[in-house]
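[Discussion] Sanity-checking designs against the backbone

I'm trying to build intuition for which residues belong where. Below is a structure token string of 170 positions. I'd appreciate it if someone posts a full sequence so I can compare it with mine line by line.
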């Protein structure tokens, strides 16, 4: 049974600040656990929580994440927007210092009223965020906890995980 979900972003941010030390301790605790067993638990909790949270009421990920774009995604966006690839790259994409294509603005160009205007054609990183369905949760904790204060799904999954594991800071 899930507790009442918290989705108000200011409330989540406030709680996240209060729980910084607790989440640091959780990260260390989880690194000592069986990663496969934690993955199963995270999948279960994520499957319970994600359908109950309407991302279009938030859009915080689109307002704050840097998104990588693959060459295939750039071509797909070009076709979707019916604009030449060179123009799409000029308007929406830049090359990072590491040589990868990334969306050139934060928030994302394609966010309007907390909704993605290219939703059916959104990028892989957007489709997969917040990555709680992926294996190796315990090796990705730094990144996950980095978004704990800004993503209602991550926040509620992590809090439910603490409860299921009876995690307490000594």
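Best answer:
Here's mine. Compare freely.
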């Amino acid at each position: 049974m899930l507790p009442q979900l918290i989705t108000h972003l200011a409330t989540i941010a406030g709680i996240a600040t209060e729980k910084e030390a607790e989440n640091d301790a959780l990260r260390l605790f989880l690194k000592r656990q069986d990663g496969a067993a934690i993955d199963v638990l995270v999948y279960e909790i994520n499957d319970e929580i994600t359908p109950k949270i309407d991302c279009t009421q938030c859009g915080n990920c689109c307002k704050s994440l840097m998104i990588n774009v693959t060459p295939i995604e750039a071509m797909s966006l070009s076709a979707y927007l019916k604009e030449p690839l060179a123009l799409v790259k000029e308007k929406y994409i830049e090359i990072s210092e590491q040589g990868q294509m990334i969306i050139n603005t934060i928030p994302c160009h394609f966010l309007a009223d907390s909704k993605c205007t290219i939703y059916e054609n959104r990028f892989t990183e957007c489709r997969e965020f917040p990555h709680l369905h992926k294996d190796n949760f315990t090796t990705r904790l730094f990144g996950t906890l980095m978004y704990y204060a800004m993503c209602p799904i991550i926040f509620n999954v992590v809090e439910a995980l603490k409860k299921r594991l009876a995690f307490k800071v000594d």
